[in-house]
Design brief:
about 180 residues, two-stranded antiparallel sheet
Amino acid sequence: MADHIASSEERRKKTVANLKDGFASLRTGRASASLFDKIRVDCYGEKSPLNQVANISIPEARLIVIQPWDKNLIGEIEKAIRSSELSLNPSNDGKVIRISIPPLTEERRKELVKLAKNQAEQSRVAVRNIRRDGNEELKKLLKDAAITEDDESKSSAELQKLTDSYITRVNQVLEEKEKEIMDV
């Protein structure tokens, strides 16, 4: 019983972690190395994460400097950034790639907040689905006479409490991201 609730809590933690990962790739008006977490560079015939073929630094609030460990990859890195969904315009001097992060328009900020809200809603649905799965498992155990009605009731209440706390966590993560996006 307790291991069942623990495993459902682990699934909830992963849901919140996935939401945070998803939010990391949402571009705000500030430079952030996490923007490039999902970018893969063609490196000698293999797709490698950008952060494994170059050093990413943020010297200023709106500037990103990418220094490849192998200068021959500069063109591939630039190509990967241009073809990404980040809508960034990198420029290189043969040694490093510089990317200026333009300030977001009010309209784009609102679009990003809407995207963030959709991601958060998907996470809330996932958390509720985990609760539903847990309740179905409890009903099955009750039907098989593996637990009593009291045990089922207590465990169901505990699942609901966990669900409520994770929904609150999702809302907090969303609130932080909204503030970050709308912060000029």
